[in-house]
Amino acid sequence: MPTNRDLEAAWKYHNATKHSYASVRTNPHRLDWDNKPTPYKIYPTLEVTRLPREARPTGVAALSAIATTKVSSGKQSQPNLESLAQLLFLSAGITKSKKYPGGETFFRAAACTGALYEIELYVVCGDLPELAAGVYHFGVAEFGLRQLRAGDYRQVLAHATGNEPAIAHAPLTIICTGTYWRNAWKYQARTYRHFGWDNGTILANLLAASVALGLPVKVVCGFVDEEINRLLDLDTQREVAFSLAAIGHTRGTLPKSSPGLPSLGLPLIPLSKTEVDYPAMREMHGASSLTSADEVMAWRRKGRKEKRAEPKEKLISLELAKDSELPGDPLEEVILRRGSTRQFAQKPIGVSQLSAMLDRSTRGIPADFLTPAGSQLNDMYLIVNAVEGLGTGSYFYHREKRALELLRHGNLRKLAGYLGLEQQLPADGSVAVFFLADLRKILERFGNRGYRAAQLEAGILGGKLYLSAYAQRLGATGLTFYDDDVVRFFSPHAEGKIAVFLVALGKSA
């Protein structure tokens, strides 16, 4: 039975997973290091098809790839095995490692809460050069593909998405899933928010990499959950589909039908000795699930561009540089360089650097829930600690006007640290960017699934900020926060909104 319009479910989950000064001090949760989940999903009985590790440089500047929102889809545009490998590596591949007493941590191309990597990637494709049609799981550890189903299953995707045109014409779709326990081991029920953030940073990389390779791409959040989960044969008590990315374009028609979908029952290597269940996450996912193609098509209806209230204060325009005046480091080089900054230097960045990050990150996201083109669910509020040419204080970013509105003047370093869960990073960074959204309006339009969309968009925008910072040899890190305190601080401007995500930017120490 459809539950997406029972809007109390989203509010119940959101309110129950808020952080507050009191909640972090009364939560008895402790990390059980002996039971930490493995960061990989492994099908031990399936053979691995290794992906090519050598790839031709794209030569596309990271800041250009981040800012580009559309690649022409008028002609045939089909990835081959090499470009698929490049997409997977640049979005979720292992890029570096760090040894420590007792072990080694492997870091990936996109940032993830706690470096727990709960997002899995699957590939659904027709026949591609050097890869037969099928459903595949991306094995990160081996950098390879394991075939789950042989044959062309793209018609299943088309039906599940209500014949979303980008899916219907895509030779390749990447499905992103979230694994509850792998992240809940540390973050408990708040993990469902992290699905959006961590899936979003992967998609930010994937969008930029697709642009760099000249492939059309679109994020799809509207689909019949049960059909996608059945296609991947997921145990939905543990893992669920969260988003799709349609890549490439073909003018051919899909097969009229797909092979059958028998249960695979494939064995998996357990993530941990034991798992702890947090029912609130599954309840939120179930309440935001879509149950039919008709419901998906209604969910995807076009929206209206919101009229924003005129600023009360004089706006400060961004200092927008031409592409030729900005660093031209190639996207793949920037992704390999990217990390999550562990300490900022309390040194100022230039206003032109901040302008480039804000501008290039917010030019639009090709997604089925962002209509008309250029729409955005999240608003961006800033605490500026050290930016040459810009006074310290709090600001609201007027995206359409490419300008900042001063809300409060003064040194707010200490407060930025407090709002960021009393962590030093947002206090030491040059800028702390808070994403806030009007959840009531979002739920009225999209139902509970709007909660997924808001978290996912914030993750994508945060991922773009990451890349635009590292493209300018700066640092960035994503953070959590005290929910209601953030809203109160930015009110009355932010009154009625919810806090969604936080990214700190600055010079690494």
Our estimate of the beta-strand percent is 15-25%
- Fraction of residues in helix: 25-40%
Taking strands numbered 1, 2, ... along the chain, how are they ordered across the largest sheet? Answer: 1-6-5-4-7-9-8
- Average predicted local confidence, pLDDT: 95
> Any idea what the radius of gyration is?
22 Å
Structural class: alpha+beta
- N- and C-termini, Cα separation: 53 Å
Residue ranges: pLDDT <50 for 5 or more in a row? none
Number of strands: 18
Please explain how this structure is put together.
By secondary structure, the chain is α+β, with helices and mostly antiparallel strands. The chain is about 30% helix and about 20% strand. It has 18 helices and 18 strands. The protein has helices spanning about 10-15, 25, 60-65, 80-90, 155-160, 165-170, 180-185, 190-210, 225-230, 280-285, 295-300, 330-335, 350-360, 415-420, 425-430, 440-445, 450-470, 485-490; strands at about 50, 95-100, 105-110, 120-125, 135-140, 145-150, 170-180, 215-220, 240-245, 315, 350, 380-385, 385-390, 395-400, 405-410, 430-435, 475-480, 500-505. Strands 1-6-5-4-7-9-8 form a seven-stranded antiparallel β-sheet, with helices on both faces. A seven-stranded antiparallel β-sheet has the order 10-15-14-12-16-18-17, sandwiched between helices. A two-stranded antiparallel sheet has the order 2-3. The longest helix is centred in the last third of the chain and has 23 residues, at about 450-470. The N and C termini lie far apart (about 55 Å).
